[in-house]
Each structure stands twice: as structure tokens, then as C-alpha cells.
Amino acid sequence: MRFNGMAVSRLIQGLAILAACCLPLVGCGSSGSPSDDHVTAPSAATSSSAAVNSYEAVVIDRPTPADGMLHGMGDMAYKLCLAGAEALHVPVKPYPRMPDDYVMQRTTYISDGHSWLKKTEPVYKVDLDNLRAEKGCEITVVPDKSFEVVIESGGKQINVSGHDDGTTSVDTSDDNASAFNARNPIETNDGYTDKRTVAGVNLRCLPKSSPIITSKAAIDMCVYEKDGVVTTSDKKSIVLYQNVDPLNDKQMAPYTVITEVRSLKLGTTIDPRVFKVETYTR
After folding, report:
1. Does residue 26 have a pLDDT over 50?
2. Cα separation of 132 and 119, whole Å?
3. Cα–Cα distance measured from residue 213 to residue 79, given in angstroms and rounded to the nearest whole number
4. pLDDT above 90 for 279
5. Domains in the chain, CATH or no CATH each
6. CA distances from 109 to 38, 55, 201, 271 (A)
7. 16: pLDDT strictly greater than 60
8. Which residues are CB-contacts of 186 (< 8 A; sequence separation ≥ 6)?
9. What pLDDT does 157 receive?
């Protein structure tokens, strides 16, 4: 049995959706081209009208403390396994230590204003296949080479799954929501009033007084400082920082999961190859 960041993150995605649904919407407007010092902006030589609404954001998910998720998943099973190994007189493997750079997954969002891409890459996975008495109760933390890509472009939605063995699978369908999304108003985030800077990116966050914020679920949630700039195809703001209790149970899972932006580029020219299937199936 293997657990990667992609699987665990599904437990917390609903919280960001809940926050988005609770906020009012207004009519569409021009988002403009930000020129803030805290993000990478295009030079005069590369700027163009086609790049005005473009962005590339890299976000990571990490548990805190780093080994909290591992203990939440494996402690009880490991203790039970130890009893079995002792009965079999089998030497046991030590409990693993999380790598210093451990993150659950890395997510890249890219848009040129007409097409959208989301690439999710689990960085490590916890392998419990040998958590058996006869195997010495071994738990390992190993690199994860899998990925998931979702492309929305030209009225199509394309899903590319990359597997550990190097193979890929592709599923293409009509993007029936694209016409509706084009008419969607830009989401406004008036409730996000607290200013914060993460990795040089200026954000607006929900105040502690928000009904969405609670110590037992969504502890923190932030979006980009300007509405309508870093959004998905349906014009909803991408969450660039959040801290959540994934299982709403400190005793069962003594950790929280932090989602945080690592880099943000605005108004840059996007290589059209990032929206091509063959880029990910070679």
C-alpha cells in the first residue's frame, strides 16, 4: 500500500471550494497587467497583449510537522506489527525519518488567458508494502515519479496520467463547461482582508473572524492580492496559501497541511507547447 501527496490532498480540496462558494460574485472586468515588484514581470521586449492575462504559479503542499502525516498513517499499524515480529523473532526495521525537503506534492498552474494547465506531482510516497511482521515491519519513504496533468484548451479537456513505470495514459473529452466559464463573472474576494506576503508574493487572507476559519478545519486561507489575475478557467481564485487540519482530529492526525506558493510569474509569454499532449507523453 502506498500513500502519496495527491491522494491525501483530496481530503482538503473541499475546504478551498467551500471558501470560494461562500464569497459573492460581481460582473466581469479587465484584470489588467500587474507590475508589482514581488512577482516576476515581463520585460518590455517580451510584453504583448497576448501575455497580459498569463501567469505561472507553483504551489507546494507540506505537512507540519514534516513527519506528522507519516505518524498519523503508520504509528498504530507499526506498533501492532512490532508485536508480531517479536513473536516471530524477526529483527525490525527502524521507523523512517522524513527527508528534509519532504513535501506531499507540487502543483503548477499555467494560463495564457485562453488555455489552462494544472500539473500535480507527488514528490514522495510512503510505502507500506513491507509493513508486515515477517518483513521486519519496514516503512519506506521513496521518490514518486507519477504526475497528473489537466489541460483545458480549444473546447477540450485533456487528462494525462504519468505512472511510476514511465508510461502515460491520456483521456480526452469535450469541455462542456468552457462556454459557460467564459461568461462567468470574475470572483471577488472582499472577505479576504488581511494582507500577507509569502515567498515574495502579496496575498489577501481571510481574517480569524471569518466563519470559514476554525482551528478544527480551515486554519488559514489566502489568495492573490488582486482579483481576477490568478484564476482557474471558471474565474475562481487559486488558493496560494492555506493551512488545514485534514482529518479534523489532532489525536488521530497530529499535523496540519500547509499549501503555499513558491513562485509566481505574471504577464510572461507562455510557451504554447505546455498545452500540448505530446509534451507529457514522450
Report:
1. no
2. 34
3. 35
4. yes
5. 2-67+104-126+147-281 (2.50.20)
6. 18, 8, 15, 13
7. no
8. 25, 26, 27, 28, 29, 31, 227, 228, 231, 235
9. 94
Backbone angles phi and psi of 16, in degrees to 5:
-65, -40
Q: Which residues of 86-112 are buried (b: 16+ CB within 10 A; e: fewer)?
A: eeeebebbeebebeeebbbbbbbbbbb
Q: 105, 121 in Cβ contact below 8 A?
A: yes
Rounded Cα gap, residues 69 and 258, in angstroms: 12
Indicate the DSSP class of residue 229. S
**Whole-model pTM?**
0.79
Alpha helices, H only, the chain: 5-21, 68-88, 178-183, 278-281
Taking CA atoms, 87 is separated from 80, 90, 120, 129, 136, in Å, by 11, 8, 43, 20, 12
pLDDT digits (tens, 9 = 90+) for 163-182: 988 999 999 999 888 777 77
Side chain identity at 82, as an amino acid letter? L
Helix/strand/coil for 133? helix
Residue 222 CB neighbour total at 10 angstroms:
26
Q: Which three cell numbers stand for residue 122?
A: 507527488
Which of 90-104, 191-205, 266-280 has the least mean pLDDT? Answer: 90-104
With CA atoms as reference, report the closest residue to 114 among 53, 32, 186.
53
Query: Are the CB atoms for 254 and 246 separated by under 8 Å?
Result: no
pLDDT, averaged across the chain: 81
* Residue 259 backbone dihedrals phi, psi, to 5 degrees: -105, 125
Model confidence pLDDT, tens digit, residues 122-139: 998 888 899 999 999 999
Sequence-distant (≥ 6) Cβ neighbours of residue 6 within 8 angstroms:
105, 120, 122, 146, 148
Kindly tell me if the per-residue pLDDT of 42 is higher than 80. no
